[in-house]
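I would like you to sit down with the pair of lines that follows and say whether C-alpha cells and residues agree.
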Amino acid sequence: MNDNNKINIFTKTTKSAVPNDDEYINTSDGLIYCKKCNTPRQKRVSALGKTYMPDIMCQCQREVYEKEEAERIRREFLNDIAAKRSAGLHDRALYECTFDKDRGYNSRQSEKAYEYTLHFPEMLEKGIGLLLWGDIGTGKTFLAGCIANALLDQCIPVMMTTFGRILNTLTGMFQEDRNGYIDSLNQYSLLIIDDLGMERSTEFALEQVFNVIDTRYRSKKPLIVTTNLTLNELKNPCDLVRSRIYDRILEVCVPLKISSQNIRAINCEANFKEAGNILSHPENDTNVT
C-alpha cells in the first residue's frame, strides 16, 4: 500500500470540525469533547508531515461500548453452552440433573462427584474418570447428569448417552462409518456412558461396546460409566469379551459406590401421597349422576 492510499484511508476516519449537539470544541486543545463526560472524542496525530484528528470514543461512549461488548460475549457464551448441551444431552430430562437439586440421598457421593467437576482440568489431563455403581434407582444417572451439566455450564464439551443409543446408531452402518462415528465421540472432553450392562448381549453389540471403550481408552480422555453391576461382577466377568471391556473401564475409572435408598421408590411414594392429598381435597369432590 502506498502513502497516498494510507492518507486516504486515514482521513476517512477523521471527524468534521463541526461538533454535534452533544459535543463542544475545547478551546485549550481545539479538539471535540463530549458534553456529558467532558472527555475528548478526537485525538491529534501527526503522520507523513501532516496532522490529523481521527475519532475516538469518549469515556461515556467507551463505557456503553464495553457494556454492550460484555453482553454480546455473555450471550455468545450462553448460546455456546446451549448448543453444547443440546448436542451432548439427547435426553432433555437430564437438563434437570443439577447439584443444587440434589436432595442429599447420596451426600458423600455427591460431594465426590462435585469435587470431580472442580478438579476436571486435572482429570482431563490425566484421563481419569469415574465408575458409578450400585443398585437400581439409587441415583447414579442423576449424579452423572449433575457432573455433565456442571461441566457444560463451563462450556466444556460433554456427551452423555447409553450403549443402547450408540448401538442403534451403529446398526446398519458400514464398518468405515462405524469407526468414524466412534472416533467422533472423542471430540468431547468427557464421555458419560449410562447403564453399562443393560445393552444387548449379542456378538455384534459386545464388539461395538468394546470398540467404544477401547477407542476412548486409547484417546486418554476421561470416561464416566454408570452400572447396576457390582464391583465383583466387573472384576470377575463371565467371558473374555466382557473381561476386555471391564478391565479397561476399571483401569481408568475410579469406582464410587452409590448405596443410598431406592430414590425412585421414595419419589414414587411421595407422588402417591401428593396425589392422595389432591384427590381427597373437598374442592375435588364431584357428584356423579
Remarks:
- Confidence is low (pLDDT under 50) at residues 1-15, 262-273.
- The longest helix spans residues 59-88.
